[in-house]
């Protein structure tokens, strides 16, 4: 979702995605050949320089320390409001600029961006540290043009970090692109997504020592909104927290894992590639299908269970396509293996991590996990018997895809319905599987249907669909593990 965490709302929500549109996809295609040539010799960001070397580079350490110190002077909007702090802020910016210049030869493919970044920092300091404007450097940063495995980027912006800092502080991160050949082949064919950039952490400032797993252009401080041309997701963080949480969940529930699912939990790189495939298909789904609304739901206030269904729709589309790829005899062995693992990833991440992550205040990703679990249980392919979780693996794909088909049917029919009728139908779909709160006005039908839609949204309880007794018990065991994943990376997980 292209939604930022509400600064006063502690709920951890699903990460935003990027999907292609006709204009930006065409632009990206035009650059494809030149980008491949330009990055062929720079896939490791400097001859003989490893990711560990970069994270320990003196110039990077100076930059990281200066940015962290500068954050202490910044206000919520990114400005340095107190003139008494300007002297120290200027010294920190001077260090940042010098560090960027020292590191620039290691990122020759980003030369235009790094030069624009230096100018933006200089202008901000000269103008007296008002609300920062880094539009020029943001427009110059085009990582989607260099999607090649191992390409690295130094990224420095005043920005918020979703599920991290709600304030626009100067953050810095060194990232590495994850672009295995099988993903490149799929993206070049039936699963085009020209804006999607999967990455892993090499090092970062405090805004990313959090639950944030995205690097997204709309989070940057800028004077106007350009056409966004990329969006990056940290697949290594997604994979690492998945592996830690699901390993513990399987132990607590005494779930016997298939051999390939167990291998997924033991291999970080395999898990990263699995999540890249999942995200590739999930992201593009927001712009595809019978959509009764803006797929990003930007500036639309609606009951949170609508967001639950949209995110779950995209995940179940990824699941369905993974089943298709795995069953297709024409699929190559590597893609077939990763497609099989995507099915485990969607199932386990949704059922175990999503359902129990964050607060119970309008937690739409949590509700999506609850819905998937209850659907599997009520269709008798998931069993909780004698305090042990068992799953009928051969029957799971068809049952999961049946839920996806129900959501697709809801969307298809809703195009002909008024907004409120769509909301009521969506609630009926969810509440037919997940039990609402006994005090719910939505459940009893005591709703102001003759008023504006806002009144219906206000009538939704903060925790409209409370956790079941199973999840309440499981949360006591998993909550500490989920909390321990804050700041996790592929290297630390």
Give me some keywords for this one.
single chain, about 500 residues, alpha+beta, 2 domains, five-stranded mixed β-sheet, about 50% helix, globular, disordered N terminus
How does this model look, in words?
There is one protein chain. By secondary structure, the chain is of the alpha+beta class. It folds into two domains: 208 residues, no CATH class; 246 residues, no CATH class. Helix content is 51%, strand content 8%. A hairpin with a 2-residue loop joins β6 and β7. The longest helix has 24 residues. It is globular. The two termini are 25 Å apart. The N terminus is likely disordered.
| Helix content estimate | 40-55%
The end-to-end distance, rounded to whole angstroms, is 25 Å
Quaternary status of these chains?
Answer: single chain
Question: Strand pairing plus helix content: what structural class?
Answer: alpha+beta
Number of helices: 18
Mean pLDDT: 90
Point out poorly predicted stretches. Answer: 1-44
Give the DSSP E fraction (strand runs of 2 or more residues): 5-15%
Count of DSSP strands? 7
- Number of domains as seen in the coordinates: 2
- The arrangement of helices and strands along the chain is HHHHHHEEHEEEHHHHHHEEHHHHH
Strand order in the largest sheet = 1-2-3-5-4
Can I get a quick summary?
With 493 residues, the protein is an alpha+beta fold. Helices cover 51% and strands 8% of the residues. The relative contact order is 0.11.
């Amino acid at each position: 979702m292209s939604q930022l965490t509400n600064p006063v709302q502690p709920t951890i929500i699903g990460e935003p995605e990027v999907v292609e549109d006709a204009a930006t996809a065409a632009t990206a295609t035009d650059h494809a050949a030149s980008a491949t040539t330009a990055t062929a010799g720079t896939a490791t960001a400097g001859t003989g320089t490893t990711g560990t070397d970069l994270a320990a580079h003196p110039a990077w350490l100076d930059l990281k320390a200066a940015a962290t110190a500068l954050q202490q002077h910044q206000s919520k909007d990114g400005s340095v409001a107190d003139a008494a702090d300007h002297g120290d802020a200027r010294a920190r910016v001077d260090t940042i600029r010098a560090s960027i210049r020292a590191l620039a030869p290691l990122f020759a493919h980003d030369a235009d961006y790094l030069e624009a970044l230096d100018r933006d920092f200089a202008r901000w300091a000269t103008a007296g540290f008002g609300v920062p404007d880094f539009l020029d450097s943001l427009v110059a940063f085009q990582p989607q043009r260099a999607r090649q495995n191992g390409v690295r980027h130094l990224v420095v912006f005043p920005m918020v970090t979703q599920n991290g800092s709600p304030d626009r502080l100067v953050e810095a991160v060194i990232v590495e692109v994850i672009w295995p050949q099988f993903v490149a082949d799929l993206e070049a064919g039936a699963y085009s997504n020209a804006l999607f950039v999967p990455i892993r952490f090499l090092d970062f400032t405090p805004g990313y020592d959090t639950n944030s797993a995205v690097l997204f252009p709309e989070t940057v401080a800028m004077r106007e909104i350009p056409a966004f041309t990329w969006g990056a997701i940290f697949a290594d963080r997604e994979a690492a927290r998945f592996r830690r949480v699901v390993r513990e969940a399987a132990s607590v529930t005494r779930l016997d894992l298939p051999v390939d699912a167990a291998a997924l939990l033991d291999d970080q790189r395999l898990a990263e590639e699995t999540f890249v495939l999942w995200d590739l298909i999930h992201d593009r789904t927001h712009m595809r299908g019978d959509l009764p609304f803006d797929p990003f739901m930007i500036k639309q206030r609606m009951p949170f269970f609508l967001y639950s269904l949209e995110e779950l729709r995209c995940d179940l589309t990824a699941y369905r396509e993974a089943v298709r790829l795995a069953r297709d005899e024409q699929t190559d062995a590597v893609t077939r293996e990763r497609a099989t693992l995507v099915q485990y990833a969607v199932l386990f991440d949704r059922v175990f991590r999503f359902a129990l992550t964050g607060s119970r205040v309008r937690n739409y990703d949590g509700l999506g996990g609850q819905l998937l679990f209850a659907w599997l249980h009520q269709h008798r392919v998931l069993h909780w018997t004698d305090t042990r979780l068992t799953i009928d693996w051969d029957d799971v794909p068809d049952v999961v895809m049946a839920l996806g088909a129900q959501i697709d049917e809801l969307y298809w029919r809703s195009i002909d319905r008024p907004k409120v009728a769509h909301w009521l139908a969506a609630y009926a779909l969810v509440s037919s599987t997940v039990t609402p709160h006994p005090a719910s006005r939505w459940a009893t039908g005591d709703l102001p249907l003759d008023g504006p839609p806002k009144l219906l949204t206000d009538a939704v309880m903060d925790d409209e669909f409370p956790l079941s007794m199973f999840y309440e018990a499981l949360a006591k065991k998993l909550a500490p593990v989920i909390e321990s994943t804050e700041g996790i990376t592929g290297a630390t997980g």
